Amino acid sequence: MDCSSGNAYLMAPTHGGVVFSVSRERVRGMDPGETGAALRVGCGVDADFSAVYRIMVQVRPSHEADIPVMERIERVCFASDRLARRQFHYLLTRGHALMLTALVDAQIQGYGLLLLRRNSRAARLYSLAIHPGSRRAGLGRMVLRALEKAARALGLTSIHLEVRADNTPAIAFYQGLGYRSFAVHLDYYADHQDACRMRKRLDTQ
Ligand SMILES: CC(C)(COP(=O)(O)OP(=O)(O)OC[C@H]1O[C@@H](n2cnc3c(N)ncnc32)[C@H](O)[C@@H]1OP(=O)(O)O)[C@@H](O)C(=O)NCCC(=O)NCCS
Fold first, then answer.
1. Which residue's CA is the nearest one to ligand 1's atom 9?
2. Which among 166, 163, 164, 129 has a CA at the least distance from the CA of 144?
3. Class level of CATH domain 60-156
4. Are the beta carbons of 131 and 32 closer than 8 angstroms?
5. 52 pairs with which residues across the strands?
6. Per-domain residue ranges of the chain
7. How far apart are CA 117 and CA 97, in angstroms?
């Protein structure tokens, strides 16, 4: 699968990598949880940032070996209704699904999962999660755009999803990528929270 469009978001890719200007102090001893901050700083053009580092950002099809890390990301991203190890395993091996993993400097920082249905041109975004330390750096957008590109290549015409009605950041994220609310599912989640149903047509953008 060609996911290079995902890399394009962060500009000027060289073999999928991106050059950022970041301060030496911010990078030394940085752990994966701080990558988002570095990416964020790196996107700026402040003359105070003296050193240039290459940060590799990659979106690729998920592997079974990714599952333990994806489980950890589920735990930090969702309070309930989490995907379990056996569900990841089923979806990756026997399910009719597309799953992409996002990595920053070879460390898994998130994933996105699209469920496909036979005889349907609509796909369902079942999950999308970026580690809190790597948010607001464009990774979520990169993953979703790569899923949309793959869906289009399969001839699919729309993607729909459910998001918690109180998940304002995620709703803003989806709206920014062209998803529109069209219905509410009352009492949808385990804790009785409503779901906002959103969708996007893939053949218009
Ligand atoms: C929703 C989520 C996937 C977004 O991932 P992300 O990598 O942080 O998003 P991006 O950096 O690609 O953001 C792209 C744009 O979306 C919007 N956006 C993202 N997070 C936002 C927030 N917290 N508040 C408002 N707008 C936000 C912004 O317009 C942003 O562009 P900008 O940073 O240039 O302003 C991430 O917040 C997440 O994993 N949340 C927890 C799990 C979750 O709720 N998943 C969705 C369940 S359906």
1. 140
2. 129
3. alpha beta
4. yes
5. 21
6. 60-156
7. 8
Give yes or no: 162 in active site. yes
Task: Provide the 3-class DSSP secondary structure of residue 186.
Answer: coil
- Given this model, what pLDDT does residue 5 score? 33
Instruction: Determine how β-strand 97-104 pairs with β-strand 51-61.
Output: antiparallel
Q: What is the tens place of the pLDDT at every residue in 55-79?
A: 788 999 999 999 999 999 999 999 8
Cβ–Cβ < 8 Å for 159, 199: yes
| Alpha-carbon span 85 to 102, nearest angstrom | 18
**pLDDT averaged over the chain?**
80
47 or 175, which is more confident?
175
| Separation of CA 119 and ligand 1 centre (Å) | 31
Q: Quick check: 31 pLDDT over 80? A: no
Dist CA 34 CA 26 (whole Å): 9
Tell me the best of 135, 175, 181 to mutate to test the pocket of ligand 1, counting ligand atoms within 8 Å of each CB and taking the most. Answer: 135
Q: Per the structure block, which two tokens stand in for 98?
A: 């597309």
Please indicate whether residue 76, judged by its CB atom, sits closer than 6 Å to ligand 1. Answer: no
Q: Is 108:89 a contact under the CB 8 Å cutoff?
A: no
pLDDT score at 190: 87
As a whole number, mean pLDDT of residues 10-18 equals 32
Residue 164 has pLDDT above 60, yes or no: yes
Q: Whose CA is nearest to atom 17 of ligand 1?
A: 173
Separation CA 72–CA 140 (nearest Å): 17
- Averaged pLDDT for residues 105-122: 94
